[in-house]
Design brief:
The complex is a heterotrimer of chains A (about 425), B (about 160) and C (about 325). By secondary structure, chain A is an all-alpha fold. Chain A has one domain (about 50-260, about 295-425). Chain A contains 22 helices and no strands. The radius of gyration of chain A is 21 Å and the shape is globular. With about 325 residues, chain C is an alpha/beta fold. In chain C, strands 2-1-3-10-4 form a five-stranded mixed β-sheet, with helices on both faces. A four-stranded mixed β-sheet of chain C has the order 8-5-9-11. The chains are: A mainly alpha (about 425), B mainly alpha (about 160), C alpha/beta (about 325). Chains A and C meet through helix 3 and helix 14 of A and helix 3 and helix 8 of C. The structure holds sodium ion (NA) (2 copies). One sodium ion binds near residues 328, 369, 372, 375 and 376 of chain A. Chain B: Belongs to the TRAP transporter small permease family. Chain B: InterPro entries: DctQ, TRAP_DctQ. Chain B: It comes from Hyphococcus luteus.
Chain lengths: ~425, ~160, ~325
């Protein structure tokens, strides 16, 4: 009864257009009043939700990503991708996907990826006669690859939200193959649409130019090695690795490339603070909501519903995928990860699914939610960067959705895609 | 009176921006120091984790409050976009009301939390636990002020000057 | 509503089959039986209503009725709660149980009341020992240069550092990964936790220092307590007391099984002579026994039953 009212209030406030964090918070607060629980408990949950050591990786990774976008690291990665993929039909689409994969490998932030790739590539594509909707479609769907390709602050959020210990190092490795697979699928989609619309072919710049571009990009690409191997070898925790990435990027930008001035630095810091404050306030409000959900025995209700239909691992996983796709249409990744991981993961483990496999499936599903309407932060950001209307963009995005869904189904069906690489490093 | 409110709102929004910068940079320095101390000085300081967490809580809440004034919190505009202008304004006023309710509860309960936990200590820092809750009270109060400003501006048909960009 | 007024909500960070959770369930059964259905308890296990320190605050605020916590978060609230966590305070399990069942235990529980908590009873948490990735801890010197994970508690930080190790306060959930990757070299805990957390897979050397025997505590919200009649208060106190022997039986069995399993697994178990450790931690005692009353409490515990030697359990 109370549970239904709580969900209903949330839906009404969200639809009315109250900011997500405040809709979650106000709906939860009303429930606290209704249940006669002092409201200070609600705000203790808000603070506790944000007061988590591993969540500090979020501001760090976003800050590092914004710095990379502004210090020419991103641009150098685009040059490499241009040399490698530029010759194909609609070559700039391939370049966009390739460069996003490289950028995804050095930054964990889909938002930073959209601003880094989009601000350079979308104008470039428009100038060479590509349609705006295509340019934005490729950019936003490719931006979510960085969530699977390590490092990824969303993986850290998953590990932090998991009720049992999840090895972040193993999770990072598990994302590599699904990330590459999704990238390949997006390249096929980008090529198919480009061929139908008869977009131009690029030219190979020659080995000399390509190798020079590659050499120039090496210091940026080193970030990925430092972070991933630093974590795997136990040199630092994921949170520490993110702080080290910030320092490293500052050094590269200020000393090596000499592209980082005070202006870029403060712009990056401002963007990082905004994103972090936005995400963390939602995480805090989700903390209130989650506490009520547990108190009203929501997880048990949901688990009973889930396993009533079937307790086959793949069936449970597909049901979770469906639920998350629906939820992901309306809500952002981080709060959904925080709210639903403790609910779904125990059920998944109960029916014999590996927490690492399940995590990658959840991450890919929720990442797709970032580019689906009505609420998709990466979709909105990409439209803002590209100066396009979300309605227009979404109309022609389905081949890219199809590529991502096909990848998702493969990842669900074949556990080895995620588990093989971590097992290799054990 | 409204002029005073506007001036206060501008001033605090700018202050929140600078506090956030300082907080983010401070956190980066503290956690990097933790790594440096472990490998170079061979001594792991035990205070760094709690200190940077406390710093994060403070700057995030200030930034989140400023986000109400600057309007950068994520929200759904599907319904709003579908409505005619005069209805739009009613819907927006309703949403300001939701934010105001939350902000007022935040200020009140935040003060209660500070009061109830001031005598508890944060381990490894030795500071009062209430310090972790103080920014909730302050951010709540700021959210109330910013929302009142936005409601007044909404009825008059104006916009606040953006400080963050 | 009336139904909400009746059911006492109780939080526990341990999983549903853990002895403390089973004990509160048992307490609830006794309460329901003896109050003829007027009062009952619903337990929320597995930390779903918050980490220990958070659940404790919520209980003080009146958002939860009961909470089971370890002594560490309580010592940030009341100085007396630090005493039973002092290293090498208890000689053995029997000594610990006698002290907590007796006057010293009453003193500690009563000290919580000004802070909004009614202390109901103590549960066992066994003896904590160090476990490490490779080096056995036979003497305090063996801790030198090792990063040892401790609970987020000043007393534990100060204990490990006084013994010569590097204390690394870290959330429990991050320890497994930290040990696996060598971010920390070791940690310390009792048999059942060492087993259930699977930390033994990453840190297979268990050195039986048995340095701390800090108990767990069941507390009730004073806000709820004040709304109860005298009879109901007495009834709740009695049911809590009666759940203690039940808890100890479950605990002993579980501890025995965990030890058996770990001995059968490839865990290297060593038994150091603790005399050198006892000498070395003296400064920790001085640091925390800051008032005459705290000194008296520690002395009362130390001298308890010293004349007739209690057998080890
Ligand atoms: Na990434
Ligand atoms: Na979406």
């Amino acid at each position: 009864m109370e549970l239904t009212l709580l969900l209903l209030a949330l839906a009404v406030l969200l639809a009315a257009g109250a900011p997500v964090a405040f809709a979650l918070g106000a709906a939860s607060l009303s429930a606290f009043f209704m249940l006669g629980i002092p409201p200070i408990v609600a705000f203790q949950r808000l603070a506790a939700g944000m007061n988590v050591f591993s969540l500090m990786a979020i501001p760090f990774f976003v800050f590092a990503g914004e710095l990379m976008a502004r210090t020419g690291i991103a641009e150098r990665l685009i040059h490499v991708a241009e040399g490698a993929f530029g010759r194909a039909r609609g070559g700039l689409g391939q370049v966009d996907v390739g460069a996003s994969m490289l950028f995804g490998a050095v930054s964990g932030s889909a938002a930073a990826s959209v601003s880094a790739m989009g601000s350079t590539l979308i104008p470039m594509m428009k100038q060479r006669g590509y349609d705006e909707d295509y340019a934005v479609n490729v950019t936003i769907t490719a931006a979510i690859l960085g969530i699977l390709i390590p490092p990824s602050h969303n993986m850290i959020i998953y590990a932090a939200a998991a009720p049992m210990g999840v090895d972040v190092g193993a999770l990072f490795l598990a994302g590599v193959m699904p990330g590459l697979l999704a990238g390949g699928a997006l390249m096929i989609a980008a090529w198919a649409v480009a061929a139908r619309r008869n977009y131009p072919r690029g030219a190979f710049p020659g080995w000399r130019v390509f190798l020079r571009a590659l050499a120039a990009a090496v210091p940026g690409l080193m970030t990925a090695l430092i972070i991933v191997f630093g974590i795997l070898l136990g040199v630092f925790t994921p949170t520490e690795s993110a702080a080290v990435a910030v320092i490293y990027t500052i050094v590269i930008g200020a000393v090596l490339y000499r592209t980082l001035g005070l202006e870029e630095f403060f712009a990056a810091a401002c963007a990082a603070v905004k994103t972090t404050a936005m995400v963390m306030l939602i995480i805090g409000s989700a903390g209130m909501f989650g506490w009520l959900f547990a108190l009203l025995e929501g997880p048990q209700t949901l688990a009973a519903l889930l396993t009533a239909a079937s307790s086959e691992p793949w069936a449970v996983m597909l049901m979770v995928v469906l639920i998350l796709l629906v939820l992901g249409a309306f809500m952002d990744m981080a709060p959904l990860l925080i709210i639903t991981t403790p609910i779904f993961l125990p059920v998944a483990v109960e029916v014999g699914i590996d927490p690492i496999h399940f995590g990658v499936v959840m991450l890919l599903t929720l990442a797709i939610g970032l580019v689906t309407p009505p609420v998709g932060s990466v979709l909105f950001l990409g439209c803002a960067v590209g100066g396009a209307k979300p309605e227009a963009v979404v109309k022609t995005i389905w081949p890219f959705y199809l590529a991502l869904i096909a990848t998702l189904l493969l990842v669900v069906a074949i556990p080895a895609l995620t588990l093989w690489l971590p097992a290799l490093f054990k | 009176m409204f002029k005073l409110l506007t001036a206060f709102s501008k001033l605090t929004s700018r202050a929140a921006l600078y506090i956030s910068f300082a907080g983010l940079i401070g956190m980066t320095v503290i956690i990097s120091w933790q790594v440096f101390a472990r490998y170079v000085l061979h001594a792991a300081p035990s205070w760094t984790e709690q200190a940077s967490l406390l710093l994060m809580l403070w700057f995030i809440l200030f930034a989140a409050a400023a986000g109400v004034r600057e309007g950068f919190h994520i929200r759904l505009t599907l319904l709003e976009d579908a409505l005619p202008d005069n209805r739009k304004r009613i819907l927006r006023l309703f949403c300001h009301g939701v934010v105001l309710f939350f902000g007022a509860a935040m200020a009140w309960s935040g003060a209660g939390l500070v009061f109830e936990t001031w005598s508890h200590t944060i381990p490894t820092l030795g500071l009062p636990r209430g310090l972790a809750y103080l920014p909730i009270a302050i951010a709540g109060a700021l959210i109330v002020v910013y929302t009142v400003e936005r409601i007044i501006l909404e009825t008059r048909g104006g916009e606040a000057e953006r400080i963050w960009n | 509503s009336a139904a909400n007024e009746r059911v006492l909500r109780s939080a526990d960070a341990h999983p549903a089959d853990y002895p403390t959770v089973l004990a509160v369930d048992e307490m609830g059964r006794l309460l329901e039986e003896r109050s003829e259905g007027r009062l009952s308890i619903k337990t929320y296990a597995g930390g779903q209503l918050g980490a220990e320190k958070d659940a404790l605050e919520i209980t003080i605020f009146g958002g939860l009725d009961l909470t089971r916590v370890s002594i560490a978060p309580l010592s940030a609230i009341a100085a007396e709660a630090v005493v039973p966590a002092l290293p090498f305070l208890f000689r053995n399990t029997a000594h610990m149980r006698a002290a907590l069942d007796g006057a010293p235990g009453e003193t500690i529980l009563a000290a919580l009341e000004p802070h909004g908590l009614i202390g109901l009873c103590f549960y066992d948490a066994g003896a904590r020992s160090f476990y490490t990735r490779d080096r056995a801890i036979m003497a305090p010197e063996d801790l030198k240069g090792l990063k040892i994970r401790v609970m987020n508690s000043d007393m534990f930080v100060s204990m490990v550092e006084t013994l010569g190790g590097d204390a690394a306060p870290m959330p429990y959930g991050e320890v497994y990964q930290g040990l696996m990757q060598g971010v920390v070299d070791g940690a310390e805990n009792n048999w059942p936790s060492y087993e259930s957390s699977r930390h033994f897979e990453a840190a297979p050397v268990y050195s039986l220092t048995r340095h701390v025997m800090a108990p767990e505590v069941l507390v009730m919200s004073a806000k709820r307590w004040r709304r109860l009649s005298e009879e109901d208060r007495a009834l709740i106190r009695q049911c809590a007391k009666d759940s203690v022997p039940f808890m100890r039986a479950v605990w002993d069995e579980r501890s025995r099984k965990a030890e058996e399993h770990l001995r059968a697994a490839n865990v290297e178990i060593v038994t150091p002579d603790t005399q050198a450790f006892v000498e070395k931690v003296k400064p920790v005692w001085d640091r925390y026994l800051t008032t005459p009353a705290l000194h008296r409490l520690a002395d009362d515990i130390r001298t308890l039953g010293q004349t007739k030697e209690a057998g080890d359990v």
